[in-house]
Design goal:
Blueprint lengths: L2 E4 L3 E3 L2 E4 L9 E6 L5 E10 L2 E6 L12 E8 L1 E3 L8 E3 L16 E3 L22 H6 L10 E3 L5 H11 L10 E10 L1 H13 L6 E7 L4 H21 L3 E7 L1 H14 L13 H9 L11 E9 L8 H9 L2 E5 L1 H5 L6 E8 L15 H25 L6 H18 L8 H12 L12 H7 L2 H7 L7 H12 L1
Length: 482
Amino acid sequence: MKYQYIGLDEINGPLIFLENVKDASFEEVVTIELKNGETKKGRVIQIDGNKVAIQVFEGTTGMSLTETKTTFTGEPMKISLSKEILGRVFNGSGEPLDGLGNVFSEKRFDINGSALNPVSRVYPRNYIHTGISSIDTLTTLIRGQKLPIFSGSGLSHNELAVQIVKQAKLSDDSNEEFCIVFAAMGVKHDVANYFRQAFEEANVMSKVVMYVNVANDPIIERILTPRAALTAAEYLAYEKDMHVLVILTDMTAYCEALREFSSSKGEIPGRKGYPGYLYSDLSSLYERAGIIKQAKGSVTQIPILTMPNDDITHPVPDLTGYITEGQIVLSKELHQMGIYPPVNILPSLSRLMKDGIGAKYTRADHQDLANQLFASYARVLEAKSLASVIGEDELNDIDRAYLLYGKYFDEYFLSQGNENRTMEETLNLGWDLLSVLPVSELNRLDQKVINQFYNPESAQKRFKITHNDIASSIINKGNNNE
């Protein structure tokens, strides 16, 4: 039943308060009519007895305490969805921004979604190919996984997001449908235009749905944006049997909006001023990724967040790390060296990759290769630390080999620019890098695997190593000693 109330008890920023309200529901949508006939929308965010707090989507400018009419619709916020949303651009409330008119469907969907029953979940298997070596080989993105990207101010996370959208696909032998839901929160106008133009120029817009909230849009819309995007993703996955990749950027802007609303409501702040329920709020978004029984589709998430002051212990990345299944960390040092994408592989990990790679999905040697690449790169840092103390000329042949491995790893493996590499190309490149090291150093690999893939000649050809080069002598000397 719809109820209409005339007058307000209080206006505080983007919030209005009413007393003596009957049968209001949490998250219920309301319609607000101003004295001049203008209408706005809002939603109930707090109920205290018969007093309710309402977030106004378009802001409270022009509202009167005595002549404002508030109508409770009796239902939560819903959006219309159909498969025709692919290729469309919407604002954070699900309203069209592309001038192509409204979406018409037989059913409207509650943007708040519903929690996935843990019993109905299916363990994520198989992978999503991104074409980026550092991700595909070392932090593989698995279907149904939530794998965030931790970035910092000034880093190239926007470019990385665009590249993932352009290149992401299912495995080459899959005939299943794949699409991307892209949500941008609190971004500048030029960044929003960059995203849209990049997708259109790459001719991938037909497989993308965009939800855009720019910096000067109402911050209430920033709260709604990821929920609208995830509702669209769930519809495409569970109603239309598609595999959906959801990219959410920037989750830090979302959390800042949440902190502002919490302060407006007078709530007691938690760590660094964020509300005490930040963890559960983020969980309500991240846990909407997954695969459920008897569903042919899946929802995979890549939330992107900028770490304030590059602090990985800040509440936003800290809580995100607790909820999600790994992280991809971008490095300011690599970025300053001109390496793109600047993925810092040592703190990065994908907790589910072991079950979505291997002979059935990628290649039989994938897991062993990734383990050895990680271990060898960690040894590179030790060699660099030692060289900074005693000088590179005083290093033994093995440490010098690791420095060469690190040099080629940064130059060829990490720094790939906008190249789209197949899984086969990436794995072969990994073996060429390991072939720079003597066989005696490959202690995480089985001898049968080494015999099959270890190839110093291929490494010398790829990295343009001549027989007079120091790398050649180190490889040959190490192999002879073995």
